[in-house]
Model the fold of this input.
Amino acid sequence: MNAGTGQGLRSGEVARAAGVNAQTLRYYERRGLLPAPDRSPGGHRLYDHDAVTVLRVIRAAQRLGFTLEEVADLLEVGRHHHGRPAKTGLQAQARAKLAEVEARMADLTVIRSTLLAALDAGCDDLVSCASSDCCPLPFERLATGQPTQGSARMLPMVGSDSSRPARRAKGRA
Done:
């Protein structure tokens, strides 16, 4: 409630308190992450203090790597937890996200090792290096999809996110 008026917080107040802009606040409302607020007699949105907490939770979850869709699922489970099995809640989602993070870390470790080997070998030209027997870069294995040396995993393509499952558009099977 707004100090002195007994009403809810207006959009700008909520956005400032949560560290987001007003457009983000309205976007989250449209996506269903925030419940529709009450309206003042003049039509202004009036949020309760919980809206600030929810916005902070959304931002924190995003920093932990959760997508907005995953955050929406977590918020929905939290709102309607009534006897649902733990496999749909935060514990299960956090385990899955941790597995994704660990897979990405393993990929980055392979990338780091490969780049260090290229620096140590003094590689300056990709084409010349690729045709040299002493080239540390696994061009052939990368091109054919074979795992890189010292790793059961294939070196990921830069710019790809091989550790994430493909997303389906909403409403499509």
User: Anything to note?
Assistant: The radius of gyration is 24 Å. Confidence is low (pLDDT under 50) at residues 160-173. The first strand starts at residue 9 and ends at 10.
